[in-house]
Design goal:
single chain; 4 helices
Length: 150
Amino acid sequence: MNIDSLIPVYDEKKRFTPPALFDEMINIVRQAFFTDEAKHCVFNGKLELDYILSEQYQWYCKKQICDIGFDIVCVAHYGSSEGIYINVSLYGDLGIESDPEDGRRYYIGTLKTLSTDFDAMRACGELAGIITAVGRKLICQNYKNFTTSK
């Protein structure tokens, strides 16, 4: 599947905070992979998400990203009480000060399904890869939005 046409190119003045980047990545993923046809083809109809939340409460959530020296890290894991979670974080240099506790890892969002079977975990792992690829492509096509000053 070619997603290039779904990746917008923004005016250089547009800035992203970590949660705004998460929301933009998820919007692109929804357009490409959450149509009925795509859900059946890509996830074999095995993925129903219960929620998608961007992180809004960390100290860095209102800071603008000013560097592209970071990676998008998505991890699918079983929750301690129920379901499967996909945690999305940025790891590296965002051009903002790093957290004394988490270092250079910035959590930006979570996706969750209540399903716990093998097919759901496989689909969540695939979705984590899709989010990572879409995010990297979004950043590469709009690198000036992350590297130039206001």
